[in-house]
Design brief:
The structure holds two protein chains of two kinds.
Chain A (H helix, E strand, L loop, with lengths): L9 H13 L4 E4 L5 H9 L5 E6 L14 H13 L8 E3 L9 H11 L6 E3 L13 H7 L9 E5 L2 E5 L16 H12 L7 E4 L18 H8 L5 E5 L6 E5 L2 E5 L23 H4 L4 E8 L4 E8 L3
Parallel strand pairs in A: 1-12, 2-3, 3-4, 6-7, 7-8, 8-10
Antiparallel strand pairs in A: 2-11, 5-6, 9-10, 11-12
Chain B lengths: L1 H19 L9 E7 L2 E3 L2 E5 L2 E7 L8 E2 L3 E2 L8 E6 L3 E6 L7 E7 L11
Parallel strand pairs in B: 1-4, 3-9
Antiparallel strand pairs in B: 1-2, 4-7, 5-6, 8-9
Classes of the chains: A alpha/beta, B alpha/beta.
Chain lengths: ~300, ~120
Amino acid sequence: MTERDDGMNRRKVLECMTWAGTGVLWTIAGGVPTSLGIIDEAVAAPTKGFTFLQISDSHMGFDKPANPNVKGTLEEAIARVKSLPAKPSFMVHTGDISHLSKPMEFDDADQIISHAGLKVHYVPGEHDLIDEDQGKLYRDRYGRGTKGAGWYSFDDSGVHFIGLVNVVNLKAGGLGNLGNEQLEWLEDDLKSRSSSQPIVVFAHIPLWTVYPEWGWGTEDGARALGYLKRFGSVTVLNGHIHQVMQKVEGNVTFHTARSTAFPQPAPGAAPSPGPMKVPDDKLRGMLGIATVTFKQNEQRLAIIDTPIQN
Amino acid sequence: MTMIKALTRLLVAGVAATYLQVAAPASAEEVAVKIGNFTFGPQELKVKAGTTVTWTNEDDIPHTVVSPNGFRSKVMDTDGKFSFTFTTPGTYKYFCSLHPHMTGTVIVETQTGSATVGGQ
């Protein structure tokens, strides 16, 4: 927890210099292969980079027909994590840990996720802040060392990671919202960094406009992206929409991960974005995790989505 | 279409209130708003001051109703309800604080003003 705000210690500075010194122009290869063979190959390949994981939208406590056993599917997702041939460095969880912000739901999530044996960096989804005190439970449990409603940054292996909160103070008729205080913090957080340092931003609601009719976007996301423009490699990881979606715009790769709980329809494909009931034998192919691999020697960042069952 | 639905609901609610609460004053009227498919139905309501509006969540996802100048519900899970009695005339715009693209309006008229359905 304490390393989140430690600024630039000597080791970090050296790492950044390494990035800058190699003059590497980061290229991003993003794809969505789904067969296990490709994943094994990708992860088993010798690499000097590192891999981290993204999981999202566990919705502990959800018990409706779209998936009456969300604990079971989260357990399966974590089993998948444990079976990866190369151990990931850590995990990010992009929110909606719980369905109704109940202590028991957070307990269940923590208990199951801890079996992965990985450090987890969380950001909240809107479902995690609906206790009586509007997010106190979340902040007490996951918000140590964070700013405001729970935003923070940290460095790992030369990459700068930024966890943002875009699910508070939402305005009527609007989309996700970062707010001025957080945006000013972000601008300041990035100010002194070399533009050759790879950046990974993670937040619950997509920072790019996926489908405003369903609220799938962030009102002031463009301002955040403006601060990131000068960086050569930016990866934006989101959840919320319970399906894989990817877009590359200049140096920025946008990617949303699957849920471990239930799928949601493609934009506009149903009357509403509510949980989608699919045949039982199809469900596990629509839930999953994502691995993100930085390979310094191969000069690329690869995002691979793995369903919990092919 | 929405307007007709709204008027029908208001009429039904009004009639029900009349029959069920013969001795009660007109201010005891009750109107229902359904939350389904991430929309409020009816999206716009016109009621007399004193009317109690009850929202019921019929989605598989929790919702809230929040009006900056009036009320804030707790989170409503599936089949959850929230009621608010409108005593002060005015226009109350509200939304779901979890899914802010969901918006609705309650227009509260004075008791002596136009009738419940307003003849509009």
